[in-house]
Amino acid sequence: MFKKLEPELSRRIAGKELSGKLSIITDLGSLGIRISNRSARVVSSLRGADYTLELEQWKLLQLLVGYRSLEDVLRQAPRSISPAGRADPGRSKLSVSGELQGLAQVLFPTQWPFCWRPDWF
Asked: Which residues does 82 contact at the CB level (< 8 Å), separation at least 6?
């Protein structure tokens, strides 16, 4: 899914002067997103990540479609969110650096999400 969303993620970060690598780890899988000033590229390796975001898949989906902000997700005690290498899954209150907060707001802006009626096929 994220591979298909690369053009949209690149559009969101274009000209924002952000760079680095964000690792996203969910209960169903993991991926890395390498950010430069002009593009966002999905990579399979989590090595060299500047930040790690670990949460349940359903919370990631809510972030992705803009239903909830990162702050909303954090209030619900995520597994972990931290600069890379400093994850502490046991924490209940987590602090997020301003740089990661800014990156998350650009990648996952809150919007008016819309879902088509289910097909029930």
From this structure: 51, 52, 88, 94
